[in-house]
Structure formats: C-alpha cells, structure tokens
Amino acid sequence: MEENNYALQMQDITVEFPGVLANDHVSIDCKKGEVLGLLGENGAGKTTLMNVLYGLYPATTGRILLDGQEVKINAPTEAIAHGIGMVHQHFKLVDTLSVIENVILGISDKKQKLDLEPAKKRLLELCKEYELYVDPDEIVWKLPVGKQQWVEILKALYRDCKVLVLDEPTAVLTPAESDQLCNAIRHITAKGRSVIIISHKLRELIEITNRVTVLRDGKFIGTIDTKDATELKLAAMMVGRPVSIERKAHPPFENPEPILVMKDVCAVDDRGVPALKNFNLVVHAGEIVGIAGVDGNGQRELAECISGMRKMTSGSITIKGKPVTGVIADPSFLGFIPEDRQKTGLVMDFSIADNMIVKDYYNEPFAHKHVLRYKEIKRHARDMIKKYHVKTPNEDVHVRNLSGGNQQKVVIARELDPEPVLDIAAHPTRGLDLGAVSNVHDILLKERNRGAAVLFISAELQEVMALSDRIVVLYSGESMGDLNGETADQQVIGQMMLGQSPEVQA
Ligand SMILES: Nc1ncnc2c1ncn2[C@@H]1O[C@H](COP(=O)(O)OP(=O)(O)O)[C@@H](O)[C@H]1O
Ligand SMILES: [Mg+2]
User: In angstroms, rounded to a whole number, what is the distance separating the alpha carbons of residues 191 and 129?
Assistant: First the structure.
C-alpha cells in the first residue's frame, strides 16, 4: 500500500447554525510538512471548519482522517490527543497564571506536587528550537499580545502537535512579529509538522503557504498551489468577482461649503503627552479628506476631539459653524465610525436591532412618551439589514455572532444612514477582508457624493490614496502637509509619514 502523505483530510463537512449553513459539504486536506492557507471573506466558514477539527462543533455530515485513518473527535481533549493544536483568534490563556503554568495546564498530574522545573526546561528548549522567546515565569496578562500568541503556539508544540491551526494569527501582530511567526512556521514544517493558517491577507499567504484553499459562503471554492497564485487570482476566488483597491471616479462637487473647521487644535493623550500640536484642518461638503500616517501619531485624539469625546487643551473646532463643546449625539450632525468597533462601536451582547438605535432610542419613531416601540425598532433594523446587506438570519441575532465585516455594516448603517453633515471613519476597514473593504469604500464615496464632509483616517496608504480628494499626513501630532488625492505620490507620502517635509524631495 502506498504511504499516505496527508496529515489531515476533512471530507464533506457540513455544519449548520440557526439560519446559516456555515460549512456546506466542505473538503480540505493538508500534506505532511505543508503550510496550507485557508482563505475566505469574513463569515466564509473558516473558523467553523477548524472548530469541527478541534472537537468544538459536531458536523452533521462528513469525516476526518489523520494520517489516512478515520478518527472521531468530540472534544478538544480528543483533538489534542490526536495531535491537533489550535491557536484561536481570541486566545484561551488564563491571564493570571504564568506562562509555564498555562503551557502545562491540563497535562500536569494533579496528585503529584507540581515540579515546574522540568517543564520549564522543556519549554525553553522549544523556545530555542522555534525562535519564539518567552519568559516561562512571566504572568500572562503582563505580556504583549504578540508574546501571548507565542505562548499559545508553544503550548501546542509542547503537546507535540502534528497539525497546528492558526486562526488569523497576524491580525494582532506587528510586522516584525509577523516575520518572527513566519520564521517559526518554517521551523515547524521543517520538522514534518503541518500548519493550517487562516488569514485574509493575500500577500502573507502567498509568502508563507504551499497551497491555499478558498472558502466562500460556507462552500469549498478551490485549492491552488501557491506558486501559481497571485493576489488578484486569490481575491477573485475569495470574493467571486474581480476586485481591486483602485481609485474610482470622484465627480466634482459644486459649491463646497466648509463643514469641519479645526484651528490650532492642541490636545494631549491619555498619559498627558501632547498628541495634537496646533493642528489645522478644513473638510468641505462633498469631499473625502484622508488622514494618512503611522498609527499612534495623533489619529485617535483627532477623532476624539472632533466627536467631543476628548477635550482640546487649546484651539477651536466647529462643525457647520457650531463649536464642538461636548459629545455630539445628534445623528444628523455627526456619523462616527470608531476605531474599535467591538468596544465603542457596538454593544456585543445586544441584538442587531438594539444596536441600530443605541444613539436615538429615546426619539420618535423608536419611542413614544418614553416607551420603546419594539415593532418600529425591529422594522427599522430589518430595513437596515436589507439596505446594507448585513448577512444574518434575522434582526434579533446578537452582534457578537456576526463576522467582523457584518458588525461593521451595523455600525455604518446606524451612523451614516441618518445622512449626517460630517462623517468620521477611523480605520473603518481594519480587519476586514477585501470584499468588505471595497463595500466600505463604496459607501464612503457615496456619502461624499451626496454632499457629506468625510474625514477618513487609515494607516493603509493604498486605501487613503484610492479614496481621498485630499490627503493630510499626520506625524507626531502635526500636519506634514496637504496633498491632492488625485496626483499624490506614494513615495512622497511615505516619507512625510516618517516626518520629512515634502519640499525635501522637490
Ligand atoms: N456559534 C455560532 N452561532 C451561530 N452562528 C455562527 C456561530 N459561529 C459562526 N456562525 C456563523 O457561521 C458563519 C461562518 O462563520 P465563521 O466560521 O466564523 O466564518 P470565518 O471564520 O470564515 O469568518 C457566519 O455566518 C457566522 O455568523
Ligand atoms: Mg474566523
């Protein structure tokens, strides 16, 4: 008999949630020593498929083979015993325990007095072998998220996993940490172990994988050898149509009235360090002003000052002539897509319907004489779900159960549908896949074309260039200059982002 060179085969897997077919007869396989990319838009069913492998969800059809042998996996303990390791999108570490305690959690013999020394020794060997360094005695909550991920990976390697699944590992990593991860993955596969990496970063998958399997809407779309893959090819498979972040037409806008006017605005960050330094900005009706810059150069404070969530230390801000003095809660005035949709944009354990009205639940038609009118609230939510193509079985679903792209659609519907005079979008596409990104871009462009003033903050230069009428580069709380979005040069912006004035290149 021929030796089976597949570490893992999942065949014909189906998983159904109420109203959603999350996996629809999906098959994937992963060879020994291979890095397999699992690619798909938010909600495509990637995490669900891997959760089946890890024994978290039962599949209603299909089977799993490891090394060619069929296995039944009904719980994570069984998955681990079969050599499956999993690093979830949201880590499962115990924050208050040390690294080494987390690593041996669940495998130490409870009857014996715990001797951590041999375990530490083994962990340090693994750190060295895979070049993922962590201090075994450090308490987990004190570690930056990147290091916490190393702990999760080391924990799986400590259990001698044969197949390691990483669910969107680089979403929380800095570029340097992502490089370290790639390096570790090479060590892992060099030892004959297999890695399945979930991501929607195309460039990264092309760099690190041997093959890529694409899912869409719960269905298997195809598997291609990475050597034959291009970003465009993968994106088209993922979205089902050709996509790109190209600049679309910005029709000229008549009569551009200044809407947002900031004069000499100074503000400090949470630690009291100056974050905005005499910042001046005007955003007109019918234009998108993009704020380019490396994260942490005052972008957050800028958005917070305009929305009234942070007090300026000096200067003035007016919106349509009215000074901003406190939090703006008038939905016809300001639409605000905050940087962290899960913390400030949404109440995760509220339904879609309730999230749609958190800003004006006390107003007609949602309330009458202080009594909420649920029929109206639900009807409104259904309208919004339809209009903004939120993928959900109904309006009562908690937003926690929506994919990132669909959560963002709920925020956008609530904030922008009232047609405010000013839109602030802070990193509105962060963490979204290409299809969802292009959807958000289309909506912002539509906002501009109806006459909204749009302030668009993003650390992704490509999308700032694709979307903006003007680009302001923010560096260390100061404007480095104001460029025409149509003609701006990527290299020039790049240098301005590092604090060099544009005339240097002239
Ligand atoms: N526990 C759950 N309950 C209900 N629906 C779920 C649950 N987990 C996932 N879903 C739904 O299943 C679909 C696939 O989700 P998921 O596997 O998380 O996608 P991906 O990881 O590709 O973004 C989505 O429509 C999602 O809303
Ligand atoms: Mg997922």
Answer: 10
Question: Can you give the pLDDT of all 506 residues of the chain as single tens digits?
Answer: 456 799 999 999 999 998 889 999 999 999 999 999 999 988 899 999 999 999 999 999 999 999 999 999 999 999 999 999 999 988 889 999 999 999 998 876 655 666 789 999 999 999 999 999 999 999 999 998 889 999 999 999 999 999 999 999 987 787 788 899 999 999 999 999 999 999 878 888 999 999 999 999 999 999 999 999 988 788 888 877 666 678 888 999 888 999 999 999 999 999 899 999 999 999 999 999 999 988 889 999 999 999 999 999 999 999 999 999 888 878 889 999 998 888 888 999 999 999 998 877 777 788 787 888 889 899 999 999 999 989 899 999 999 988 888 999 999 999 999 999 999 999 998 878 777 888 899 999 999 999 999 999 998 888 999 999 999 999 999 999 999 999 998 888 888 888 887 664 44
Asked if residues 256 and 286 have their Cβ atoms less than 8 Å apart, the reply is yes
Enter the pTM of the model: 0.61
Residue 404 host element (H or E) = helix 404-416
Q: Is the CB of 17 under 6 A from ligand 1?
A: yes
N residues, the chain: 506
For residue 401, give the ligand 1 atom closest to its CA: 27
Closest CA to ligand 1's atom 1: 401
Domain annotation for the chain: domains and CATH numbers: 6-239 (3.40.50.300), 248-333+420-506 (3.40.50.300), 345-417 (no CATH)
435 lines ligand 1 (CB under 6 A): no
355 lines ligand 1 (CB under 6 A): no
Given the CA of residue 48, which atom of ligand 1 is nearest to it? 17
Select from 73, 34, 65 the least CA-distant residue to 213. 34
For residues 178 and 127, give the distance between their C-alpha atoms in angstroms, rounded to a whole number. Answer: 16
Ligand 1 pocket, mutate which of 217, 400, 403 (most atoms under 8 A from CB)? 403
